[in-house]
Structure formats: C-alpha cells, structure tokens
Amino acid sequence: MAQVEKQQHPSGDNRFKLLDRAITKHQARGDALIEVLHVAQGIFGYLENDLLIYVARALKLPLSRVYGVATFYHFFNLKPNGEHTVVLCMGTACYVKGAEHIQTALEERYHCKFGQTTDDNKVSLITARCVGSCGLAPVAVLDNDVVGKLNPDESIKRVEQLKNTRREVVS
After folding, report:
1. ∠119-90-159 over CA atoms, to 5°?
2. CA distance 23 to 35
C-alpha cells in the first residue's frame, strides 16, 4: 500500500491551509474581509504585516483597505498580545468620568503605554472608542470581563489580580 504524503502549503506553514479554507468558504469575496481577518487572527494569534498582505492578495483588495480595517477595529491585534488584556474605554462618558486618569495611573504603574504589552508579556494595555457600557463609566474590559465604576487605584488593584491568575485557554 502506498503512503499518502501530506501536502504542505507552499510557505511551509500549514496554518495558511486553514486560512485558505476560510477564504474559499467566503469565495474570496472582498466583502468577507472582517470574517477572514477574524479567522486569520484566530489561527495566527495576531495580524502581522505579511499576513495582511496575504489576505489582501487573496481577496484582491488594496493593502490600504485591509490595513485600515485591521487598525480601525480594536479586536484586531497587529502585535502578539500579553497573557492578559486590559481594554480601557475612552468613549465620551468614560473620558468625562476619569478614564484619562486611569490610563495615566496604569501607564505609570506598569511602565507601558496603551497600545503596548508589558515587558514581562503579562498584560497588554489597549484603548477602545466605546465598549457600550456607558452607564458603568469609566469602564474597562479585563480579559473579556466588563468592570465598571473604576478609579485609578481600583484599576491597578484589578490588573494586579489579573496578572496573578492564569488565563484558561478555550479551544
């Protein structure tokens, strides 16, 4: 009996085969860009430049459009995230109620600007335009848990608790 050789993706990285399936599923239509980017991020963990170029070519879209979508939506990451994520809402209600002070406190405490990951790769600090919980302002999303009515001290306390817990990976 002849052995069937597993066909490898030309890049040598078989994760692209999974991405190609998603692109084929959406018939390589440009209007499926967000769905394809979600799949790509799920497979690769984040959207590095080479991956954005690959998606642009596969969907026959200008790279500027793909990059624009990837940078507009806060749920897309262009760099690997830390073990935990802190998304601070900077919408009007949160900003008026002190989100800027929370941002400053967290940046000073962790020596890390928003949009970056701490040196120990434990926490990625991210801002969002709005998370849709204005009644709880100021709000942050800590590993997908919405926490409201925050102040700088409470924010640091919550992030410390977050850093000291292991994040469960759901398959």
Report:
1. 40
2. 9
39 pLDDT above the threshold of 80:
yes
Residues 6+ apart with CB under 8 A from 56: 62, 63, 65, 66
pTM of the model: 0.63
The rounded distance, in Å, linking the Cα atoms of 75 and 119 is 21
Beta strands in the chain (DSSP E): 84-89, 123-128, 140-142, 145-147
Task: Give the bridge partners for 4, in sequence order.
Answer: none
Please report which residue ranges of 84-171 form alpha helices under DSSP H.
92-96, 99-110, 152-163
Question: 15: which 2 tokens?
Answer: 């994760």
Task: Give yes or no for residue 1 having a pLDDT over 60.
Answer: no
d(CA 76, CA 36): 12
pLDDT of 81 > 60? The answer is yes
145-147 and 123-128 as β-strands: parallel, antiparallel, unpaired?
unpaired
Look up tokens 């002070």; give the residue: 101
The fraction of the chain above a pLDDT of 70, given in percent, is: 91
Residue range 108-130: average pLDDT? 91
Sorted by where each starts, the structural domains of the chain and their CATH numbers stand as 15-72 (1.10.10), 84-163 (3.40.30.10)
